[in-house]
């Protein structure tokens, strides 16, 4: 069956398997335990094929983190459509955003970020990616809240929400922090409410 | 002069030099580049003397992170005494707390936390330390705000402040994020104001 798969699709499947394996590997073993050989073996791909798609370890892990960041943003956008309008939106949005960085994808990215702080080559490829994914995440958070950045304080509250989400991801790294996080999410929804309500008012006027 | 230094004081000086060297080393090279030999050399202490004080690399780095966490909390407490009473306290407190994790001490701790996520032995010593330092930081944040945990939402807002601070520390890891952070700090002061004001009201009643 695989031999009948068109070349382009096969290539896409291989890339995807390498990306998934890279994220798993980073999350479980960290940057120092993540090599092209280890990733290729986990993906069931030859080392040569892996290097055909991604010449270096940096290329592969950066592509992986970028891909997963975009996938997560697409998923958020799809869920946004089902949300209620007005202030009651604040609760489900707080939950979606503040749980964003609690899984193995964030752990994988965190390994890269921290490794990059002592690795110049890795830093150079990650900084532009961080900026791009950060901008996208900010845009989708605004959409989710239905918030208007022209209102004073809205931009900063939305930014704080994403920074808080990353802080909560960190707090969930070594222990299961779900219970404490859920209480913070409830309080955060109250803090976000005026942001959503102000926008709804101004849209109505 | 050093030979006249009392034994106990000399021992304290050595420990302190090892701790400072461990933090510098972690912040610059990460966990994988931090060995007892490297730390001892940087501290100007023999490897044997270093191991007399701290038998393993884990002992040394954990002591370092614990010591610096406590030092930071003591410093915050001293600065708390100089703060104004009432809601105007929110501004300087937001600034103090949200800048807490932007320096090399946080970077050192972050290397350890992330390494511990893939290293069982390190995780075992770090988890109780994380809980202890977390509780202390929460207590000092409450003191700084002059906030009363019995008021609904106060506990969670204070927790969110520290989680946000860690998120902002992460955002400052690869690039200088000061400008963006300062805007978030201003908005955060507005969000914290009712927490401080509610407490001041209830204290006055």
TrEMBL record, chains A, B:
Keywords: DNA-binding
GO molecular function, one term: DNA-binding transcription factor activity
Keyword match Membrane: no
SUPFAM superfamilies: Homeodomain-like
Domain of life the protein comes from: Bacteria
Pfam families: TetR_N
InterPro entries documented for this protein: Homeodomain-like_sf (IPR009057), HTH-type_TetR-like_transc_reg (IPR050109), HTH_TetR (IPR001647)
Gene3D superfamilies, alphabetized: Tetracycline Repressor, domain 2
Name this protein carries in UniProt: TetR family transcriptional regulator
Native species: Prauserella muralis
């Amino acid at each position: 069956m695989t031999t009948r798969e068109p070349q382009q699709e096969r290539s896409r499947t291989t890339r995807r398997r390498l990306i998934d394996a890279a994220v798993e590997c980073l999350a479980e073993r960290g940057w120092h335990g993540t090599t092209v050989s280890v990733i290729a073996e986990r993906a069931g791909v030859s080392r040569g094929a892996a290097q055909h798609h991604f010449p270096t370890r940096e290329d592969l892990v950066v592509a992986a983190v970028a891909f997963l960041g975009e996938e997560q943003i697409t998923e958020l956008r799809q869920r946004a459509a089902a949300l209620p309008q007005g202030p009651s939106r604040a609760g489900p949005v707080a939950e979606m955003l503040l749980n964003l960085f609690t899984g193995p994808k964030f752990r994988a990215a965190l390994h890269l970020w921290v490794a990059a702080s002592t690795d110049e080559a890795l830093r150079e490829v990650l900084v532009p990616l961080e900026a791009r994914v950060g901008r996208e995440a900010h845009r989708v958070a605004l959409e989710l809240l239905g918030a208007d950045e022209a209102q004073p304080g809205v931009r900063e509250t939305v930014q704080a929400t994403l920074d808080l989400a990353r802080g909560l991801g960190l707090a969930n790294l070594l222990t299961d922090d779900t219970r404490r996080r859920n209480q913070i999410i409830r309080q955060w929804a109250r803090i976000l409410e005026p942001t959503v309500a102000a926008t709804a008012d101004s849209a109505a006027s």
